[in-house]
Amino acid sequence: MRIILITGISGSGKSVALNALEDGGYYCVDNLPPRFLRELASYLAGEGQTRLAVAIDARSSVSLDEVPAIINDLSDAYDLRVLFLNASTQSLIQRFSETRRRHPLSGSPGHDADVGLLTSLAEAIERERELVAGLAEFGHQIDTSNLRANVLRAWVKSFIEQESVGLTLMFESFGFKRGVPLDADFVFDVRTLPNPYYDRELRPLTGLDQPVIEYLSAQPMAHQMIDDIGTFIAKWLPQFRDDNRSYLTVAIGCTGGQHRSVFIAQALAARFGDKANVIVRHRDAPIPVDGGAAHTPT
C-alpha cells in the first residue's frame, strides 16, 4: 500500500493537496492523531486498500514527537512518502485574514495546555513552525507562498507519480522579486546572464519558447553557468544519496523567474534526466502548470 503523509504549516494548502489526492483515488483522512497511523494503515491494508493519504498538523501537537518513529516503522512495511507544505509568514497571515479562519494554535482556552493559547497570529505561526520543523527532513517540501491552487494540485500529482526508488532531484525556477523558495536546498543566482526581457519581442515569452532558447543558447555565459552548476550537483549528488535523502531541490533564480531561470532549470533537468528521478518546476513563469518538457541548449 502507498501512504502519502501530508504535513506542514496550517494555511499552506494541506486541504488542497488532500483533495487532489482524493480525486486521484486515495483514501483520505484529515487531522488524524499520529499515534493511530499504524492501526489505520494495518486496517486499510487488510481491507484491500492500496492508497492512503493522511494529513497531520499542529492540532495533533501532543503526539507530534512520535511521528519520526512512526514514519520509520511504516516505511519498512509500506511505500510511504511525506509531503511537507510550507509558506511565508506574510502569505499565511494574508490567507487567514481573507478566510477569517482561526489558526489552530490561537484557539479556545480549552486548547492543548502544552501549546498554550496564542493571541497573535504571527506568534501562532512561528510556534507551529517550531512544532513541525523536525518533520520537514523526512520528505519533499513545497513552498506554496506564491502558488495558485491549480498549480499546487498539479505539483502534488507530479509528486505522487514519481518513482519511489532512489533520490528525486527537483530543479525549480523562480524570480528573486517574489522571494527565494522556502523549500530550496541549493539556490543559484543566474541574474548575471543577458536578460531576454530587454528584447521587446522576447519579453512576453518564457524560457520554454524557442526564440528565448535560441537567444540564451547563443550566450557563452549561459553554457558556462549550466556547466558550473551541473558540475557542483554531480559532485555532491552521490553524497545526498548515501545520506538516504529522498529529495533534493535546486532553485535557479533570475529577476522575474520567466526567462533565464526557466531556461537554466530546463537545461539542468535534461542533463540529469538519466542520473536521478527528475522534476522541473517553474514557480513564477506564466506557463502551463506541467512545466513543459526538458530541453538541451542548442
From TrEMBL:
Q: What is this protein called?
A: Nucleotide-binding protein
Q: List positions binding GTP.
A: D57, A58, R59, S60
Residue ranges occupied by any RapZ-like N-terminal domain in the UniProt entry:
1-161
The RapZ C-terminal domain extends over 168-285
Q: Name one GO molecular function term.
A: ATP binding
Query: Entry's HAMAP family?
Result: RapZ_like
Record keywords, A-Z: ATP-binding, GTP-binding, Nucleotide-binding
Concerning InterPro entries, the annotation shows: P-loop_NTPase, RapZ-like, RapZ-like_N, RapZ_C
Q: Short name of one Pfam family for this protein?
A: PapZ_C
